[in-house]
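Appendix B, example 12.
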Amino acid sequence: MTTQLARFLLWALALVASGSALAADAEKARPAKGDVPPPYVGRQLNGTEIKLDAVPGKAYVVSFWASWCGPCMQELPILVNIQQLAGDKLQVVAVNIEEREVYRRLQRQIKELGLTPAYDPDHKAQDAYGVKGIPHMIIVGRDGRISSVRVGYAKSSLEELAAQLNEALATEPAKAERSN
């Protein structure tokens, strides 16, 4: 084996090893059930940040989605029903991951449906929540902790979703404000 080939193989092995370490770190950083979620979930067109800790004691559903995503579009009416049924006990935040112009066209419709529209132009929220695929839903209980993380959508899982939402709404509100 030539010296150049040996160096290349060592470099390739080092690259693979560092990639595995980075993937493991990213997986560890992904919020999971029981964790306090990152407060930032996106922004409005005017630049106002949307944060989960704005109303202590409220439950949240945060869904990352895109208009080109078929399962996301199937999930959207479910999110609308969730918001209507739960009323002011829960806030559904629909975080669009598309470009600003696409979000601009969609945000009025989302708001008219009763959801809180947001977008994530710098991928800050997607990175913080470990979003790798959409739809990606996080349910946060009134206690300020994640009660469920769901990736994908299937009608067959609606009963499980309802149970998870009821669990999130049944938690006791957090006694102290969450830290960032």
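The longest helix spans residues 3-29. The CA atoms of residues 70 and 76 lie 10 Å apart.
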